[in-house]
Amino acid sequence: MSEDAKRSIQGALAMKPLSSDGRKPSSAADAATPPTGKRVIIKSADMLPEMQKEAVDTAISAFEKHSVEKDVAEHIKKEFDKKHGSTWHCIVGRNFGSYVTHETNHFVYFYLDQKAVLLFKSG
């Protein structure tokens, strides 16, 4: 698939940005502190800054409504499916590894305080 890019990340809290593909973390929301007081660090992104902000805002809302990580991930995924078409995938947690294929301009990996959020579109 020529539109897809492969991404390998490990969602450990001490993880540093990957440099094997030559990308630097997006500066759109790097180390930003949104009005809610939550610290946001974009670790890696292939997504427009406006959509990155939407992903962070959706995650903040999801964490306010849900306490279980699976429910937070479901909330984010369903919101992005509704707003941006299917099929989005979302992983939320403190420690995970992943290797995913995503559509171009549809990938973001960020921390919201101490929780990692991986959101991407595929399929």
Automatic annotation (TrEMBL):
Top-level taxon: Eukaryota
Keywords assigned: Cytoplasm, Cytoskeleton, Dynein, Microtubule, Motor protein
CDD domains attached to this UniProt entry: DLC-like_DYNLL1_DYNLL2
Record-linked PROSITE patterns: DYNEIN_LIGHT_1
GO molecular function, one term: dynein intermediate chain binding
InterPro entries, A to Z: DLC_sf (IPR037177), Dynein_light_1/2_CS (IPR019763), Dynein_light_chain_typ-1/2 (IPR001372)
Annotated stretches, region: Disordered: 1-38
Gene3D superfamilies named in the record: Protein Inhibitor Of Neuronal Nitric Oxide Synthase
Compartment annotation: Cytoplasm, Cytoskeleton
Alphabetical GO biological process terms: microtubule-based process
SMART domains the UniProt entry points to: Dynein_light
Compositionally biased intervals (Low complexity): 25-36
This protein's record includes keyword Cell membrane: no
Any single Gene Ontology cellular-component annotation: microtubule
First-listed, main subcellular location of the protein, grouped into a coarse class: cytoplasm
Family stated for the protein in its record: Belongs to the dynein light chain family.
Stated name of the protein: Dynein light chain
